Amino acid sequence: MNSIFSIGRKLFLPALVICFSAIEVNAQKGAAYEMTIEGVKVIVQPSNNEIIEIQTVIKGGVQNYPLDKQGIESLAMSALTECGTANDDKNSFKDKLDKVSASVYGNTGMDFATISMNCIKSDFDVVWPLYADAIAAPKFDEKEFNRIKQDAINSLKSQASQPDYAISKLAKQTAFKGKDYAKNPEGIEGTVSKLTAAETKAYYQSILTRSRLVIVVVGEIDKEDLTKKISRLLSGIAQGSPFKLKKELYTPAKNTFISEKSDLATNYIQGIASGPAPGAPDFNAFNLAMRIFYARHFLEVRSKNGLSYAPATWFDGGASPTANIFVSTTEPNKYIGVAKALIEKIKKEGFTEKELKDIKTSYITSFYYRQETNWAQASSFVTNEVLHDNWKRALTINEDLKNVSLQDLDRAFNQYITNLTWAYRGNPAKVNPQLYTTTKNTRTPLPKSKVSATKNN
Amino acid sequence: MYKIKLTGLLLTLALTSFAQPRLPKDYYFKKLANGLEVVVIENNKVPLATIEIAVKNGAYTEGPEYSGLSHLFEHMFFKANKDYPDQEKFIQRTEELGAIWNGTTGDERVNYYFTFDKDSLEAGLKFMNAAVRFPIYRNEDMAKERPVVDGEFQRGESDPQNQLWMATGKKIWGDLFTRKNPIGEHNIINTATPEKMMIIKNKYYVPNNSILVICGDVNHDAAFAMAENIYGDWPNSGFDPHQKYPIPEFKPLAAKDYFVKESSIAQTPNLMYIWQGPDFRNDSAATLAADVFSTALGLNSSKWQQALIDKGLATYAFVSYQTAKYVGPIYIYSLPNPLKLKECYEEIAKQVKMWADDDYITDEQLNTAKDILRRSKIRQTEKPSSLPSQLTYWWCSTSYEYGTDYVDNCMKVTKEDIKKYVKKYVLDKNYVAGLIINPEMNKSTGAANFFKPNF
Q: What phi, psi does A80 have (nearest 5°)?
């Protein structure tokens, strides 16, 4: 009681700010709040709609298992809803969910696993017991486990046939060789095929500790009822030893290029560079810089040079953060000339005040866009809590971004966009790797930027 | 004179009755004098506005000489216009508006949508107006965009599932495949000209073939006034493009057609079956039965799921129907367990043959499927920015009323309706079945030998 009061009191001042934000977000919606139940942080956002989304997070992701067990957490997450629970066999469990068109599913990524439920508010009392059983009392029935293991292998092969997935995997495995981020959360056929139901169950029990959990609720649920339900769920889960997610920067020492032959109609290329860790002072600045870089890259690669349908750049702000550049093109040598010239130009001339102003405006739209669905809101709370240790950042981000200056943007881009780890899939005869690795000037000259500080119309 | 007056009266009555289509609560309709239909959806969940223009255009309007050009046109929409003469300026304007934007080209619809702060509504409508009415097509812009669209095509070719879709499509639609293939043909895309773009524009990009939807934290009276002010002088073309350029009817398939396609990039086999299903024009009741049936087969308890998924013959096996005005396709799409490929192929045949049996779906399953569709309506209304696209899909391929009454009418579907649908469009019809597989697996499983018509 005391501790809840204390958290509530600590929250009071920021809550005023949040409250203000919340009113801005949606006049009818209540402000978000947090509780601590059985030692687990529970974040609640009333939604004023008919849908309930709950995400229970187990922190750790690829840090939780060794390379030769990659895939174990993903298979465990599938097993929670596909291999029966203490009260229902697989068919009974799934049929009950079908009856109310609700979903309960688990998945895992690089930094955390999520067990989610989504249902219509009036069905909450039917779905909650199934959800709680999936988390706290999964059966890991052996016959069902073998079925989902074969499905996982089929899916791995199917995914590997998708060129976007395959290039991302090759780039990550190259960049992070020997490190946690080289692991594929879904595993590889060699590791997944060896996993047993008993081993996977034991693994799941080892990571299901209150010390690793965070729960996010977006929906209109009576606070007392919710507290009772979560308390009952957590009372059967061990506290476990304290857990802290490791954050590790990726800093390639030089440009590298790896190629994999594949019989594709075009060539897929991904480059990975460094980026700031979640919570670092330049995180927001780099995030904005990469969004402007996306627009400039799109303009140069697609609009002006017609080199690709799908040029992209993005900042992956996970526990091992990276900046990423992606393209599919039939002219890889011409592409790298354009990309290098663009990077050089930004480093020399910097971004503009107008670009910074516009990207902040775009961020406001994205912010409200996320507020449209309970799922997107819950996911945003989860990411901010697990990676930034600050769920409130999901609501204050627009205010936070106001403090980012043009100098911050230029400094961050110059600091992190240096060496790149390039991966290539397609026709090796079409590409000159040296163009990707050399530091000599091989750039295609770009005209001076037309982007100006004044409005064009 | 009298006749003219009477015709005029009937026309007025027709317009009056059409002036109030049945729409969901908080949807407001107005048809401008130039024929542009405007729907405003008031939804103040977040302080954003989404605008969408959809045009009855897409693959179905394309003969072989235009295959893929509705899609190229959609790309050119974002290139240059009288207010924003190059793509750099166009993109800059989207950034100033803070817009989230995109466009899509499908079989029977091309749509363009922008989401931004609610206070930017008028500026956004003006921006959309410049792009849709006053595009500029330059040879040099076309030359740059052709390889971009071709690149999208090549990405599809690099995906085995897409390869399979193309191969089955060519067989089921025959000579009219271009009318179901929005991505189009390489050579047509690569030889497209500004003149061809103008032909598309003049035929289809006219107010009497378009709909404007404004959704979000907006007031319908103010939004209508803006729409009238900005789009009111868009001239009516004076003809209905779908009467002047009628869509040819698809021919029924002459025989069952099975094929095995080898692809080195297919690391695991994929299976697809396709039938020519019902359409809104000729059998709208069957389109509803199709959706209820597909939903029932998605239930874990269904005979379909139990036979294929529960028994480990496939990782997934979806049955779906795509609502269309001109022959909607019915699909089975499956990722079979490669170790049980032949069993999966045999089981699919066994199941399909039972689809019209009295007990194939239980009453309970039928009711659960309906409940799922009822709840899906709640989920579909969760995201305000997605509402315009839902509405324009109905508008292009069905009608306002079809969309508005969709769930209520699905609730009325009976087992007899489903049996009738299955018999009429599946059991008594020819179809195409395709398997994409890599050469090694084809050899080891003997797929080429056993993958033959078996129902």
A: -55, -35
